[in-house]
Amino acid sequence: MPEGHSIHRLARQFQDVFAGQVLDVSSPQGRFTAGAALLDGRKLQEATAHGKQLFLRFDRGVILHVHLGLYGAWNFGGDESFRGASSIGAPRRIGERETFSQDAEQDAGSLTGSYAGPPEPVGAVRVRLVSRNGWADLRGATTCAAITEAEAATVLARLGPDPLHNLSGDRDEFIRRIRRRKTAVGLLLMDQSVVAGIGNIYRAEVLFRQAVDPWTTGGALDDETAGLLWDDTVAAMNDGVRDGRIVTTPPAWWNGGDAGALDGEAHFVYKRQGQPCRRCGEAVAMAEIGARKLYWCPGCQD
DNA sequence: ATATTATGCAAAT
DNA sequence: TTTGCCTAATATT
């Protein structure tokens, strides 16, 4: 159940541990057998992310396109070199499942510099990637397909700018796409064609941090406010990539000021309906909008 | 121990 | 507009 920061971390990990290597690709579950056969035995050239979409580019122009959806997850395991790469092996974070499974940690802990091979697949493993140094299992993804470069371009074409790329022109493009619409900004931030990578937590938290009423229409925002929304999203999501979890409150709001100890203090409004706003004390509100729960403080965001 | 929920999206209806 | 995904954390019995 990742937002964009998790997918960018995953792309980094795939780049670190698999890029440049020939991979064995299989579908133990059996639902991706044909796609796996297309990818099997090819070299992974590059791993990239845009928003919540992950692209693994193999040689001869075949791309593994994955979207985890609500509860998809990758699990990894392997030898020392594999384990030490990027954020793999980092402490398991709430809300991220891109780290080692418990079994894999036990396996890896018993290794002495060598890699004994992947474990028997447990559960519905849609795709398994195996290199000389380690393995990755995908479960529960909403999208998992072997596609061409042209098809990948089509996927990218329907996405808005990604705050984690923040390319030149992205900020202006975001402002344009927001202000063009008469929809509530609380909905627009979740619209991947407006901005790619924001999910329900960043949506609620960034709107709170910028004191923007989620029910304001995009067209009613001025350039400055829309620009500040983009800037704060860039900052918040980059923190998420660094930390491997979404923490939108500053240390001053944590009991003891220790990130490792924070529990229920990581967010201003997300999942805090009925509780007093950390800033003004008014009860945090919640409404279902577009089949998702929107959280905001009626006192601070008006 | 069992039930509910959810950091989404696409396909089916 | 509804369903599938078929996980894993959290809530409830």
Sheet having the most strands: 4 strands, antiparallel
Any idea what the CATH superfamily of the largest domain is called?
MutM-like, N-terminal
Query: What structural category do the secondary elements indicate?
Result: alpha+beta
Query: Whole-number radius of gyration?
Result: 20 Å
Distance between the termini: 30 Å
> Numbering strands along the chain, what is their spatial order in the largest sheet?
1-6-7-5
CATH class of the largest domain: Alpha Beta
Order of helices and strands: HEHEEEEHHEEEHHHHHEE
Overview of the molecule:
- The protein is an alpha+beta fold and 302 residues long.
- The chain folds into 2 domains: 4-157, N-terminal domain of MutM-like DNA repair proteins, CATH 3.20.190; 170-296, Orthogonal Bundle (Helicase, Ruva Protein, domain 3).
- It has helices at residues 4-18, 33-39, 80-83, 102-110, 149-157, 170-179, 185-188, 200-209, 223-243; strands spanning 24-26, 44-50, 53-58, 62-67, 73-78, 125-130, 134-139, 143-147, 285-289, 292-296.
- The strands form 3 sheets. It has a 4-stranded antiparallel sheet.
- A hairpin with a 2-residue loop joins strand 9 (285-289) and strand 10.
- It binds a DNA duplex (13 and 13 nucleotides) through residues 1-3, 5-6, 52, 67-73, 94-97, 123-124, 139-143, 190, 192, 199-202, 246, 270, 291-293.
